[in-house]
UniProtKB/TrEMBL annotation:
Start-end of DNA-binding region: 28-47
Stored Gene3D superfamilies: Tetracycline Repressor, domain 2 (1.10.357.10)
Cross-referenced InterPro entries: Homeodomain-like_sf (IPR009057), HTH-type_TetR-like_transc_reg (IPR050109), HTH_TetR (IPR001647), Tet_transcr_reg_TetR-rel_C_sf (IPR036271)
Top-level division of the source organism's lineage: Bacteria
Ranges where the HTH tetR-type domain occurs: 6-65
Keywords from the named record: DNA-binding, Transcription, Transcription regulation
Protein name: TetR/AcrR family transcriptional regulator
Pfam annotation, one family: TetR_N
Length: 182
C-alpha cells in the first residue's frame, strides 16, 4: 500500500473510532470521511460498506484485548506476577483506564457482533485460567467465577464517573473478590 493510502486508511479508522465513541452507530460514512479529511470515495475504496469499516475496528479492538490477556497469562506462567495481581490489574484497566474502549464496544455490539463474539470467548477463556490459578493460590474467595468478574465489569461505573470514584470502585470490587482473610 502506498504511503498516502496507508495514511488515509489510518485516518479513516481513527476518525471512525472517535465518531463511534462519541455518537454510536448513528455516525455516518460522510461524517467519518470529513473527520478523516478524505473524500467519501477514498473512504469507500478502503471500506466498501460501513459494516466493513466497523468489522475492522472491532477486529482491532479484539486483537488489542487478546494481546492484553495473553500477556497477563504469559507473565503468570513465567512466575513474574500472580494471577490475583493480573486479575486486579485487568479490572482496574477496564474500569479506570479503558473507558473509551467500553464505549466503543457498546457502539460496535449492534453493528458488528461477529468479531466481538470471538473477543468475548477469548476473554472468558483467559479470565477463567487466571481465576483457576488464583483459586489454587487461595487468593480468591471460593466460588468466584469468570461470570462473577464479568458481572462486576458490566456493572462498573463508566467513563462519565470521575477517575477517583472508578479507582475506589475497583478497590471495593477487589475486596469483594479476594480472599484477603486467609
Amino acid at each position: 500500500m502506498r504511503a498516502d493510502a496507508a495514511r488515509n486508511r489510518t485516518a479513516i479508522l481513527t476518525s471512525a473510532r472517535t465518531l463511534l465513541i462519541a455518537r454510536g452507530p448513528e455516525a455516518g460514512m460522510d461524517e467519518i470521511a470529513a473527520e478523516a479529511g478524505v473524500a467519501v470515495g477514498t473512504l469507500y475504496r478502503h471500506f466498501p460498506t460501513k459494516q466493513d469499516l466497523v468489522r475492522e475496528i472491532a477486529e482491532d479492538l479484539g486483537a488489542a484485548i487478546a494481546e492484553v490477556l495473553d500477556s497477563a497469562a504469559a507473565r503468570v506462567a513465567a512466575g513474574q506476577t500472580t494471577a490475583a495481581d493480573e486479575l486486579l490489574s485487568l479490572i482496574r484497566r477496564v474500569v479506570v483506564d479503558l473507558g473509551e474502549e467500553r464505549l466503543l464496544r457498546a457502539a460496535l455490539s449492534n453493528l458488528s457482533p461477529e468479531p466481538l463474539h470471538a473477543m468475548r470467548a477469548h476473554a472468558v477463556e483467559a479470565i477463567e485460567s487466571l481465576i483457576a490459578t488464583a483459586h489454587r493460590d487461595r487468593a480468591l474467595r471460593p466460588g468466584i467465577s469468570a461470570e462473577d468478574v464479568g458481572l462486576l465489569l458490566a456493572a462498573s461505573p463508566g467513563p462519565d464517573v470521575p477517575e477517583p470514584a472508578r479507582s475506589r470502585w475497583t478497590e471495593l470490587a477487589w475486596l469483594a473478590l479476594s480472599d484477603h482473610c486467609r
